[in-house]
User: What shape does this take?
Amino acid sequence: MTKKKVAFSGIQPSGDIHVGNYLGAIKNWARMIDEVDCIFCIVDLHAITVMYDPAEMQERILRAAAVNIACGLDPARCRIFVQSRVPEHTELCWLLNTVTPIGSLERMTQFKDKSQQQQENVNTGLFDYPVLMAADIMLYKANVVPVGDDQLQHLELCREIVRKFNARFGDVFPEPQERLSQAPRIMGLDGKAKMSKSLGNHISLIDEPDAVWKKLAPAFTDPARQRRSDPGNPDICNIFTMHRGFSPPEVVQRVNGECRGAEIGCVECKKMLLEHMLKELEPIRTRAKELIAEPERVYSALSEGAAKCGTVAEATMDEVRRAMGLRK
Ligand code: AQP
Assistant: This one.
């Protein structure tokens, strides 16, 4: 029997998980769950590289785990755990630091963007974030990494680290490949930057229907559409990108044609999106809220996931320490 490929994915407990995370990553993860050996990690050690309130962190982790499970990451069919519960992630990060060129880290656009956003807290962890991400992936010898396109540069760096490590210490790690979804970049509702937990430009997966409409109604569309009679270009409209993620093909086709022909206004288009978005998100919201109300069930799934991942992580670290001459 051929061994299943291993997929690793992470999500930061840095705020409420949103439609961008869902269409760009989580929906894809849930689809892969039976095809590959899936490992999903709530990456709390990444989330502390920005300012945060320690009193809120455990609640954020619970919510992130509950939402992911509600999206279909069934702990009976995959491993889901919290990063800081498997200390080998940070040990491997340190070892990989010794083969990672500073120049490569300096080129990372996420570091540059986040440094701009938090000029009072440009910390070493933020700079080293991509090496910890490489460690997350390499610890499980993952072959596949499903991500949104904002993470492609980090993944390219991970492959560089794999090549440098293997060239120096022997062939220990495979080179992981990305798997993008059909909507690898969802823009924020204001159209200025990608939809992010921390930029206040998102629709959360657990927002109530009224709140979703309140955010969707004023959302940025194709600026060429000043009046209903102005023809639009769905290819550059974030609302259309979300239609492709949520609406059935016949609705996507209709919106595409009617927007170009100015037969439909942006409000009508958004109302159609709302209907299909809510249809898909309603069961997720209900299930996530049930799980948040039963934290012990979530914590028990996370502990089980950490125990299973810990065993794999220990074996990899044993191999790495030997390869690097740190053990006989
Ligand atoms: N806007 C997006 N469109 C498509 N995919 C996205 N992802 C994030 N934003 C979008 C993908 O979601 C997965 C988990 O992301 P993350 O939590 O690890 O970190 P992030 O990319 O930094 O997400 P946020 O929401 O923007 O968080 P903050 O504001 O905390 O930085 C990843 O696969 C990511 O590509």
Q: What stands out?
A: The beta strands are 6-11, 37-42, 79-82, 144-146, 177-179. The chain has a mean pLDDT of 96. The chain is about 55% helix and 5% strand. The radius of gyration is 21 Å.
